[in-house]
Amino acid sequence: MEMINMTINGQAIQVPADYTILQAAESVGIRIPTLCYLKDVNAIGACRMCVVEVEKARSNPVACLQQVAEGMVVRTNTPALRKARKTTLELMLSNHRMDCLGCSRSTNCELQTLAQEYGCDNHNFEFGEPMKPDIDDSAIHLVRDNSKCILCRRCVAVCKHNQHCSVIGPNQRGFKTHIASAFEMDLDETACVNCGQCIAVCPTGALTEKDDTKKVWAALADPTKHVVVGPAPSVRVQLGEEFGMPIGTNVEGKMIAALRRLGFDRVFDVDNAADITIMEEGTEFIDRVKNGGKLPLITSCSPGWIKFCETYYPEFIENLSSCRSPQGMYGALVKTYYAEKAGIDPKDIVVVSIMPCTAKKFEAARDELQTNGLRTIDVSLTTRELAKMIKEAGIKFTELPDEECDPFLGMASGAGHIFGATGGVMEAALRTVYEILEGKPLDNLDIHAVRGTEGIKEATINVAGMDVNVAVTSGLENASKLLDMVKSGEKNYHFIEVMACPGGCVNGGGQPHQPGYVRNFTDLRAVRAGGLYSEDAAMTLRKSHENPEVKELYETYLEKPGSHKAHELLHTHYEKRPMYRD
After folding, report:
1. What CA–CA distance (Å, rounded) separates 19 from 65?
2. How many C-beta atoms surround the C-beta of residue 461 within 10 A?
3. Kindly report the CA angle at 306 between 303 and 312, in degrees rounded to 5?
């Protein structure tokens, strides 16, 4: 690797020749402020916050774009630069609706943080009347308020480059520029797949998930309702970030304790339903291979991916597993299996899920997810919404004891835990499918070929004398590339795992916000996934088909994987969706 010598703020350093000034500064512990830059996604120099001084340069370049050079002398913190950045921030604030106290991003807003650091006065530049809300709340999963938008275009970039959809972009020009859909359509009229990646990268409160916490508070306060909650696999290694804990910390025990203290009647674990998903999906795969079914089989755990397939690649609908997602299975089993065991009328049960994903809100409302005429998931909250409830209740999260889930649907294997990372569903499925077909234990349960944060991963695994070609992809732009290769005949697979969000659920649209300077220099996906894999490695129960609660469920209620009753409760169907609603 070619290295160059340069100086930053009087410090002589050596960095790779392909670094930008922003990267060079970060490598020696200097944070240059940014608001628009996102590594590998959005490098447009629009916000002008990262301007620096370079000796002999004709003007001040932006650090996010300017590549380093031999002998370069850079200053990042001069009085002139601080004044320029402060003026830039105050101009942004002059065109920003200032209701910080009522904003969900208050104290976790990148604009607010920088304004405090630079001592900004939001009254220095005032133009006309105070801004009013400019809201699109048509979509089921988010609210867009352009009065809080700073035109950083991060949301536009992830929607296009990571998620393939490009359903939002800058409309009009000059002072009238704003982010919206084509022809000013409401978001729910477009081919948005509800993934929430735009929310995850927004530096302000311009994009937020729809807050459904009031529905849950109301249910908890209703004495006629039996309120059940279940968190998804990845939530346990993200929730701690909302309380100042290191990224990737597994807080499963404290999360369960917090849920009980919020007043939930039962705390179950959607990881248990993940194990059941493997039993059903593994059985479905074996059946398709043995009986000439439609291949490749493609996983159905990610609702953002499912909607993407229904909208953009409907020709692959027959390839989708008919299995509901773990959220869908969890809800169905609570309102049937658990309701019968507990002797409670399903109409009196309120099922809440805690998900890493805003697309789960869309999935919960799908007609296909009903069971016996009832919605199986009544409310789906994001990790951020759960953190909000815990804070609102005054619960000292970090001081809570570690507790365990309730029985019936509370025990999970390590295979269920790793569902939250890209490749986790595939690895969990292969552990079970291999042992069922081979009739013997798998020597090494860690299938590294399908791990990692690469956009597309491939492997060939010999199972019962058959070479099984598998692929794992995350991020819908990568999914599009993979499906195009399958369509053209360039690639031939038996089994494909797709997750809508890059890196899988650990990077879901409902996970805790991290500022750009963290996202740009920390691999959130890998660190968070590491927490799940560490949990799996430390467990003795690491295979879905060995979970005692899952065994009992099939023995006493569902008969066997793939049975008629299992299909009634745990499977669903999909349909082609139009690109734009009439």
Report:
1. 9
2. 18
3. 135
363 is catalytic: yes
How many residues belong to the chain? 582
**Under 8 Å between Cβ of 203 and 109:** yes
Give percent above pLDDT 70 in the chain.
99
Per-residue pLDDT for 128 more than 70? no
- Both tokens of residue 64? 């996010």
What pTM, to 2 d.p., does this model score?
A: 0.95
147 is catalytic: no
CA–CA gap between residue 33 and residue 49 (Å, rounded): 6
Q: Is the pLDDT of residue 147 over 90?
A: yes
User: Which one of 55, 126, 368, 555 is the catalytic residue?
Assistant: 368
Residue of 242, 284, 427, 477 marked catalytic: 284
Q: Which of 241, 280, 363, 497 is catalytic?
A: 363
In the block, which residue shows the tokens 């399958």? 486
Assess whether 321 carries a catalytic annotation: yes
Pairwise CA distance, residues 379 & 264, whole Å: 13
- Active-site residue, 368 included: yes
- Give the strands of the sheet with 73-75, arranged side by side: 11-16, 3-8, 73-75, 53-54
CA–CA gap between residue 117 and residue 277 (Å, rounded): 48
**Closest Cα to residue 507, out of 145, 136, 113, 195?**
195
- The token duo for 247 is 């990224």
Packing angle of the helix pair 303-312, 476-488 (nearest 10 deg): 50
The active-site residue, picked from 321, 380, 474, 544, is: 321
**The one catalytic residue among 360, 361, 457, 543:** 360
Q: What whole-number distance in Å separates Cα of residue 199 and Cα of residue 189?
A: 18
Q: Which residue among the candidates 252, 477, 505, 535 is catalytic per the annotation?
A: 505
User: Using one digit for the tens of pLDDT, what is the confidence trace for 304-328?
Assistant: 999 999 999 999 999 999 999 999 9
For residue 284, indicate whether it is catalytic. Answer: yes
Is the pLDDT reported for residue 127 higher than 80? no
For residues 280 and 276, what is the distance between their CA atoms, to the nearest angstrom? Answer: 6
124 pLDDT tier (thresholds 50, 70, 90): confident
The set of residues, in sequence order, having a beta carbon less than 8 Å from that of 385 and lying 6+ positions away, is 209, 211, 212, 213, 510
- The catalytic position among 110, 241, 281, 477 is 281
End-to-end CA distance of the chain: 55
Indicate the residue type of 30: I
Give 373's contacts (C-beta < 8 A, 6+ positions apart).
Answer: none
β-pair partners for 571: 323
Task: Say what the pLDDT of residue 122 is.
Answer: 75
Alpha helix positions (H), 336-461: 339-342, 359-365, 383-392, 414-417, 424-438
Query: Cα separation of 447 and 462, whole Å?
Result: 13
* pLDDT of amino acid 123: 75
Average pLDDT over residues 194-200: 98
Q: Tens digit of pLDDT for each residue in 497-510?
A: 999 999 999 999 99
Inform me whether the pLDDT recorded for 130 exceeds 90: no
In the annotation, is 176 catalytic? no
Q: What is the pLDDT of residues 250-285, one digit of tens each?
A: 999 999 999 999 999 999 999 999 999 999 999 999
pLDDT in tens, 35-81: 999 999 999 999 999 999 999 999 999 999 999 999 999 999 999 99
Q: How many CB atoms lie within 10 A of CB 403?
A: 17
For this structure, is 252 an active site residue?
A: no
